[in-house]
Amino acid sequence: MIVTTTHTVEGRPIRDYLGIVTGEVIVGANLFRDMFASITDLVGGRSGSYERVLERGRREAILEMVDKCKQLGGDALVGCDIDYQVIGKKGSMLMVSVSGTAVKLA
Length: 106
Hints:
With 106 residues, this protein is of the alpha+beta class. It has a single domain (2-105), classed as Translation Initiation Factor IF3 (2-Layer Sandwich), CATH 3.30.110.70. 35% of the residues lie in helices and 40% in strands. It contains 2 helices and 4 strands, in the order ββααββ. It has a 4-stranded mixed sheet with strand order 1-3-4-2. Strand 3 and strand 4 (93-105) form a beta hairpin. It is elongated, with a radius of gyration of 17 Å. The two termini are 14 Å apart. The model has no long low-confidence stretch (mean pLDDT 86).
C-alpha cells in the first residue's frame, strides 16, 4: 500500500476518492523510562526510550489507517498527516493520530 504525504501518486492517476481515514494510538510512558529520560536530558544526548515509544505509536497508527483504507477497497493513502499530542495527568501519555485520504488508483 502506498502511503504518502503528497496529494498525488506520480505516474498513477487517482480514479476514485474513497474518503478520509484515520488511525489513533495512545501510548503511556512508565516511571522508569521517565526517570532515565530525565537523566539523559541532564547530561545531554538523545532519549532512546522515548524515541522507541514515538516510533511504535507512529507505526501502529499508520497500520490502523492502512487497515481502514483496505476495508474501503483503497489502493493508496494520499495527503497523509501525523500529529502528536501529550495527554493525561502530568503528560503521562502520548497520542499519535494520522489521517489521509483513501483512494483507488487507475
